[in-house]
Amino acid sequence: MQRYKCIVSYDGTQFAGYQVQPNKRTVQSELENALRKLHKGLDVKVFASGRTDAGVHARGQVIHFDSPLRIPIAKWEIALNSLLPNDLAIVGVEAADAGFHARFDAKGKEYRYFMYRSSRRDPFKRHYAYQYSHPLNIPAIKDALPFLVGEHDFTSFCSAKSEVEDKVRKVSEIELLEEEDMLIFRFTGNGFLYNMVRILVGTLIGVGSGDISSQAIPEILERKDRTYAGKTAPAHGLYLWEVHY
Amino acid sequence: MQRYKCIVSYDGTQFAGYQVQPNKRTVQSELENALRKLHKGLDVKVFASGRTDAGVHARGQVIHFDSPLRIPIAKWEIALNSLLPNDLAIVGVEAADAGFHARFDAKGKEYRYFMYRSSRRDPFKRHYAYQYSHPLNIPAIKDALPFLVGEHDFTSFCSAKSEVEDKVRKVSEIELLEEEDMLIFRFTGNGFLYNMVRILVGTLIGVGSGDISSQAIPEILERKDRTYAGKTAPAHGLYLWEVHY
């Protein structure tokens, strides 16, 4: 038996999220279907660094699985991709130690959120960036960022549905990039709660639109109450960019 | 009655091409459906600069239509986009002279063809660029370009199904751009025959892969026979980029 670590990229548009759900097309079920075919009907369980929601994309999701197959390491990517649908791809495979775990060994993650800042419709961006045509006060957004960076209890920035007990996370960096008509938020941290990046973005949009003051961020954190933060930004602008080990 | 000229952008992935066909989803039928709604059930015929095939994209297709509606010019784009599906968008509207014709007044067109030069699968490019992972001799392709530029009978580079009589067209420029892992062909000319850009690209790929010599291009043109040129490159790498008037 050998453990493999794979980097996985997917267009989230036509997936009901990462995790297996009955009668839904999910990333995990497509990965496990491909592995089952490769293993002649044997079930192979896949473990990911974490879930992604319906519509959320991934450039660098990481998974691991165990296999008894003696496939040379360089052939795994081709073998798996030949069995996967074309909106889901393996973009890297390496042999891992038997103790490696995609979720528990993850030291941090990077997410990016793409906003398309235009009132002009672009059919090529409809699934890949959140179109937002209202004015945004970018300096106000930048003023808000330092209040969010660091170790905080992010209860206010977590879906109320979450069952995680400890909501303290460390956001190590938030960067705002402006590239032509795209505004890109880069978030890196040791872990992110359910919907956390989307609520951070929604809150920062609230700051940029003048609904929320930059200076109010510390209080929103202190309240530990989801209702004080901004809206949850749409899923289709979000990309799980990289997982760090 | 006022004639309107519109610039139209579409993701060709889910269209059976531009032109109306029975029981198929086409760009023209979606445009005419939207106009019919806006005109309370009145049929409004749309005329385009030319057809595009199933899977072919457009950044700058041009259409015209006539309307009795007194909608301010600045509101047309919003009104039409609110009635169009999100893979098809109006990106410009202007009032045109009564004699303007999107097809007959077109002086030239620009097409671009995107090739993704990698053996690594990319789920985000699957519908938007032709993945080609084999080696290509770029200098050989560049050597072939001057033979294709200029006024020629392009019968060899036209689908044998075409019913057009006069197959003489003038290609004013072919440019090859390399941007990271993308190879982009830019074609400008006074008109392009059915499948012509895709056969030009397929032939240039034949030159780059060593199947066709650069020096053979003049003979391929002279033969006036489709079987002498290369394959028809896949539709999903092709974009109607701009129409010149």
Summarize the helices and strands and which ones pair or pack.
The structure is a homodimer of 245-residue chains.
Chain A: E1 2-10, H1 27-38, E2 47-48, E3 57-67, H2 73-81, E4 88-96, E5 108-116, E6 130-131, H3 138-148, E7 150-153, E8 168-179, E9 182-189, H4 196-208, H5 217-223, E10 238-244
Parallel strand pairs in A: 3-10, 5-6
Antiparallel strand pairs in A: 1-3, 1-4, 2-3, 5-9, 5-10, 7-8, 8-9
Helix pairs in contact in A: 3-4
Could you describe the 3D structure shown?
Two copies of one chain form a homodimer. The first copy, chain A, has two domains: 95 residues, Alpha-Beta Plaits (2-Layer Sandwich), CATH 3.30.70; 137 residues, Pseudouridine synthase I, catalytic domain, C-terminal subdomain (Alpha-Beta Plaits, 2-Layer Sandwich), CATH 3.30.70.660. The first copy, chain A, is globular. In chain A, strand 2 and strand 3 form a beta hairpin. Chain A is built from five helices and ten strands. In chain A, strands 1, 2, 3, 4, 5, 6, 7, 8, 9 and 10 form a ten-stranded mixed β-sheet that branches. Chain A is α+β, with helices and mostly antiparallel strands. The interface between A and B is medium-sized, with 18 and 18 residues.
Search tags:
homodimer; 245 residues; alpha+beta; Alpha-Beta Plaits; 2 domains; ten-stranded mixed β-sheet; 5 helices; 21% helix; globular
What sequence of helices (H) and strands (E) makes up the elements of chain A?
Answer: EHEEHEEEHEEEHHE
The name CATH uses for the topology of the largest domain in chain A is Alpha-Beta Plaits
Largest sheet of chain A: 10 strands, mixed
Cα-based radius of gyration of chain A, to the nearest Å = 19 Å
Q: State the helical fraction of chain A.
A: 10-25%
CATH class of the largest domain in chain A: Alpha Beta
Q: Which of globular, elongated, flat, extended, rod-shaped describes the shape of chain A?
A: globular
Number of helices of chain A: 5
Oligomer: homodimer
The CATH architecture assignment of the largest domain in chain A turns out to be: 2-Layer Sandwich
CATH superfamily membership of the largest domain in chain A? Pseudouridine synthase I, catalytic domain, C-terminal subdomain
